[in-house]
């Protein structure tokens, strides 16, 4: 019954300059025959070679994270790329997607530092198939709490502030909003040990590995909310063969 797989990280294009994830994408299309295969990247390390390796025939969607079109804000948030300009790189990736026949998507996390920004003009110019707009979410042990890898409390915004951002961009047809409520339980996430991660208690609690107990047993502890998945628009036209896009 599996129809879609999404590779995210970390940064999927790090290993072998994108060739490894390209091989995974090819396997998912050729061997598993999945209708949709996508990658989420931060746009820093994925080379043209990596996009080409997973593109054309096999990769349906490349989603690139972009939280701001103001380079100073990107640096403040942690999206700075040193000598590279994140926004210029985004346009370069957009062009590669056109050249190699990959649907282009943008993911933005709305937080304290970009919540007042107007992104209408830039998003319409890039013309992604989807613009996923997330409300900054705290996950215990990941970006919140004593044992967290990073601290995100200073990025948190209110539900009201998030709604105001959405209202400012209501005329962007590709916008797909995801509040904290919609996001927390509506994803099936597998970690590198092939364990489902349950986020219902505000932290990522792993199931047993599907390699040890199988999918049917492990998925019971995933915390997945199918109704919320459908409510947030999780089911959409996700195979580029059905998108009828003009590359």
Would you kindly provide a written description of the structure presented here, covering whatever features stand out?
The protein has 247 residues and is of the alpha/beta class. The chain has a single domain, classed as TIM Barrel, CATH 3.20.20. It is 33% helix and 17% strand. It contains eleven helices and eight strands. It has helices at residues 19-30, 48-54, 71-77, 86-100, 120-126, 159-168, 180-184, 210-213, 215-218, 226-231, 240-243; strands at 4-7, 36-41, 61-65, 103-110, 130-135, 175-178, 195-198, 205-209. A six-stranded parallel β-sheet has the order 1-2-3-4-5-6. Strands 7-8 form a two-stranded antiparallel sheet. Strand 4, helix 5 (120-126) and strand 5 form a beta-alpha-beta unit. Helix 1 packs parallel to helix 2 (48-54). The longest helix has 15 residues, at 86-100. The radius of gyration is 18 Å and the shape is globular. The relative contact order is 0.11. One of its GO terms (biological process) is defense response to virus. Keywords: 4Fe-4S, Antiviral defense, Iron, Iron-sulfur, Metal-binding, S-adenosyl-L-methionine. It comes from Podiceps cristatus (Great crested grebe). Its cofactor is [4Fe-4S] cluster.
């Amino acid at each position: 019954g599996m129809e879609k797989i999404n590779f995210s990280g970390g940064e999927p294009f790090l290993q072998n300059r994108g060739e490894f994830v390209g091989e995974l994408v090819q396997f998912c299309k050729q061997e598993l025959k999945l209708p949709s295969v996508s990658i989420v990247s931060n746009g820093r390390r994925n080379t043209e070679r990596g996009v080409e390796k997973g593109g054309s025939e096999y990769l349906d969607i490349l989603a690139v994270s972009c939280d701001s079109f103001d380079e100073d804000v990107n640096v403040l948030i942690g999206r700075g790329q040193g000598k590279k300009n994140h926004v210029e790189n985004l346009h370069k990736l957009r062009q590669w997607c056109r050249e190699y026949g990959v649907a282009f998507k943008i993911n933005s996390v709305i937080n304290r530092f970009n919540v007042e920004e107007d992104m209408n003009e830039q998003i319409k110019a890039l013309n992604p198939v989807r613009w996923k707009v997330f409300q900054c979410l705290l996950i215990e042990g990941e970006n919140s709490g004593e044992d967290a890898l990073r601290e995100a409390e200073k990025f948190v915004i209110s539900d009201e502030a998030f709604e105001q951002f959405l209202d400012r961009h209501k005329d962007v047809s590709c916008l797909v909003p995801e509040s904290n409520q919609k996001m927390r339980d509506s994803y099936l996430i597998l970690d590198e040990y092939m364990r489902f991660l349950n986020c219902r208690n505000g932290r990522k609690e792993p199931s047993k590995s599907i390699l040890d107990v199988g999918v049917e047993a492990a998925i019971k502890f995933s915390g997945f909310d199918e109704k919320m998945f459908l409510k947030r628009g999780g089911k959409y036209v996700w195979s580029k063969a059905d998108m009828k896009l003009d590359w």
